[in-house]
Amino acid sequence: MKIRRLIAVWASKFAGYACKKMGKQGVTWAGKIALRIYPDILKEMAGEVKKGIFAVCGTNGKTTTNNLLCSVLEANGQKVICNHTGSNMLNGVAAAFVLGAKMNGRLDADYACIEIDEASTVRVFPHFQPDYMILTNLFRDQLDRYGEIDITMNLLARAMKMAPDMKLLVNGDDSLSTYLAVTGENAYRTYGIGEKVLEEDAKEIREGRFCKRCGAKMEYDFYHYSQLGAYHCPKCGFSRPKLDYNASHVDLTDGLAFDVGEFHVKANYRGFYNVYNILAVYGAADMAGASLENFNRVLGNYKPQFGRNELFQIQGTKVMLNLAKNPAGFNQNIGAVMTDREPKDIIILINDNAQDGTDVSWLWDVDFDRLENANARSITVSGIRCYDMRLRLKYVGIDSVAQPDMERAIQDKIQNGTGNLYLLVNYTGLYSTHTILKRMEEEKK
Q: What pLDDT does 269 receive?
């Protein structure tokens, strides 16, 4: 054991502990310190993972898919390294490994489930090449940071070439993800929802309207949401592939239920998009040869983390926290809110920090007019750009109240609300809101 590696592990663990004591997340600092002290630490530790490394990429659904896959593998008695908090750039990835190491600097892990930011794959893959990559979807996200979606696709294509032995599991309902798979050289399998499920046809922004192969306008038999659905190009023939993992008989009336072949999946989750997340986990576990015997039990026991359908109980109020950071994700969260027909209060927090993307023009691509039918007794807007959000709602005839201080907004609805509160927040508001809710929940126990 190199002494520099041991020092890097100890320093990182101390940094992580100190940050938590100060109420900071601290994960990325731990990874940055480790790489600075010993630049080869990530490469060496990844090489100590015994059975396989999963990389989870895509615009939406990465954290839920990654954490759920980790839980499935752990239920089979496997030791798993995972960046649970969603810190998915190079420093966050490094932190997952070093913080998971023992005090002797060694890593004892059968698998690693690592969420990786799409643009960061080309920085992470030089350190290690995953055995599997799950690609959940590709939507427009943070234009000032990522640029147009073609830039993200080019970065992912470069990363895939860095790992020629890596097996892909891609969302076949997404023409953009599918195009990356079929034009690359990696072996791949697909998952998707083969039949029309939703009767509502929301007029969303469709990223995959034009064929990536020839440029012709794509034709769809049906949409699930955004550009996800059954597509084909009338000019060159590019189309949705045969689905290796096909969700059939999808039932949304009491949580989520569907079949994958002869296997029946049942979960008490809201949100149609979670069918994709669960299906991706099923497919990844199957590709790795993991047992699926405990799959439904894991779904039943799984507790969502850090704003992915995360539930809090505070003074008799049910509080649901959800991350909503781009048009596709926001529209799906609105859909999930609307499945609850009980009276409710809604708080929407919008920040424009660097990690959020400083351009908030994407708010005009979200179908906020649907909230008119959400049985909301009140809508409060919060965060740095709360007045932009209030203006956006005004343009669709929906009244809202501005309260820039999120804690005060939450306290008001707990004291004077319906007892049923939904929080939709973008990226940098997530950790601070989560901290507020955890503190309030603990104070009232």
A: 85
How large is the average pLDDT for residues 231-260?
Answer: 96
Question: Which position has the token pair 């609105």?
Answer: 334
Tell me: the pLDDT tens digits for 321-339? 999 988 988 998 998 899 8
Share of the chain above pLDDT 90, in %: 80
Instruction: Confirm if 437 and 309 have CB atoms less than 8 A apart.
Output: no
pLDDT in the model for residue 77: 96
> In this predicted model, what pLDDT tens digit does every residue of 139-150 receive, in sequence order?
876 554 555 788
Q: What is the pLDDT of residue 144?
A: 46
Note whether 191 and 244 are within 8 A (CB).
yes
Which tokens belong to 131? 């055995």
CA 314, CA 393: separation in Å to the nearest integer? 28
174: which 2 tokens? Answer: 């997404």
**Could you tell me if 272 and 252 are in contact, meaning their C-beta atoms sit under 8 angstroms apart?**
yes
Q: Mapping DSSP to helix (H, G, I), strand (E, B) and coil, where does residue 439 land?
A: helix
Q: How far is CA 281 from CA 63, 83, 113, 263, in A?
A: 12, 16, 11, 14
pLDDT digits (tens, 9 = 90+) for 209-221: 889 999 999 999 9
Cβ-defined contacts of 150-154 (< 8 Å, 24+)? 152/118, 152/119, 153/179, 153/180, 153/212
Phi, psi at 47, each rounded to 5°: -70, -15
Helix (H, G, I), strand (E, B) or coil at 318: strand
pLDDT given at position 246:
98
Beta bridge partners of 401: 380
Closest CA to 228 of 196, 181, 187, 264: 196
Contacts with 154 (C-beta within 8 Å, 6 or more apart), sequence order = none
Check residue 146 and give its pLDDT. 53
Please provide residue 88's backbone torsions phi and psi, each rounded to the nearest 5 degrees: -120, 10
The amino acid sitting at 155 is L
pTM of the model: 0.89
Amino acid in position 101: A
Sequence-distant (≥ 6) Cβ neighbours of residue 223 within 8 angstroms = 201, 204, 206, 229
C-alpha to C-alpha distance for 409 and 383, rounded to whole angstroms: 10
Give the type of residue at 74: E
Phi-psi region of 209 (alpha: psi -120 to 50; beta: other; left: phi over 0): alpha
Residue with tokens 């530790």: 45
C-beta atoms surrounding 289 within 10 Å: 8
Note whether 56 and 62 are within 8 A (CB): yes
